Amino acid sequence: MKRFPCEELTQLNPGPDTANKTPFYTWQPPQKPITIQLHFDVVDRLLLDVMKGFGAVPRRGAEVGGFLLGTRERSGDHLTVEIQDFESISCEHAEGPSFVLSANDLRLWNEAIARLQAGARQIVGYYRSHTRDGLQLANEDLNLLDEYFPDHDLVSLIVKPYATRASVAGFFFWEGESLRSESTYLEFPFRRKELGGGVSPLDRAATAARFGQQQSRPPAGAPAAAESPLLTPSIDPLPGASLPEPAKTKPARSGWVWIPLSFIFMLLGVILGFQIAISMRPRTPANP
Asked: Pairing mode, if any, of strands 65-75 and 174-175?
């Protein structure tokens, strides 16, 4: 397999003016004979699958993968691929969080290919989430493409999830007998809103549920229900004012304190009585 040397990366950051009426996002790198139409509902559902795997393993996250389904058409040298659905393939992650298929995984992989080829849905590509560094096809991806996808009209989608911002993604495709795997020609945010698709149905349903809860509350100023519990008003102190501290209750004196006091009072009484007795005794007249 021949690979292209890495060229300058083009990154797409759609703004509010890119909103469109079509049900898909159009991926078309400059001066390349390929157009990929990625339906917004596929973005919504596939992102859920990617983020579920991303949260399954601490720190790095588990990778997920599977098949892209839809239609493809070639007109001369130009290839047009429309991605209308996808099917994920279970991975037991026997070798860690990377999407590396074991013998059991490959059995399910082959069964899915046989089932899809016999049905109405057409395999138009391969996808995988990427929790490693960078955004590129790995060696195991290239091995799967060589063995199971000899048709060079199939494309690959790599999605890199993030926890705090929109995930990013990029497509990879064949150019004759060569495949650029080190990086994508055009990186784009993998979320409907950033791609001009508006609010996803899941977000819209969540907003409607919150709005319904707000509507169920009584309007401001409406009388309270007859049997509503009486609320105790909460009064805030004025700014700068200090609330008086409650008076401290003096502890009651214990009974043993009166014992020494009684003794002192008794002693004072004895002394006072002795002094009174002396002062009232008649004096003996002196001899002439």
From this structure: unpaired
The token pair that represents 16 in the structure block? 């509010």
The residue count of the chain comes to 288
Per residue in 206-250, pLDDT (tens digit) is 555 555 555 556 555 555 444 444 344 443 444 444 444 555 555
Single-letter amino acid, residue 74: R
Concatenated DSSP letters of 214-249: HHTSPPTTPPPPTTPPPPPP--PPPTT--PPPPPPP
Number of structural domains the chain divides into: 1
pTM of the model: 0.67
- Residue 211 is inside which H or E element, if any? helix 201-215
CATH number, residue 110: 3.40.140.10
Q: What is the pLDDT of residues 32-44, one digit of tens each?
A: 999 999 999 999 9
Q: How far apart are CA 197 and CA 24, in angstroms?
A: 7
- Confirm if 182 and 41 have CB atoms less than 8 A apart: no
In this structure, the number of other CB atoms found within 10 A of the CB of residue 280 comes to 7
- Identify the domain containing residue 97 by its residue range: 32-196
Task: Classify residue 194 by its DSSP letter.
Answer: G
Please give the helix or strand (H or E) that residue 51 lies within, else none.
helix 40-54
Q: Going by C-beta distance under 8 Å and a sequence separation of 6 or more, which residues neighbour residue 158?
A: 127, 128, 129, 130, 135, 136, 137, 141, 169, 170, 172, 184
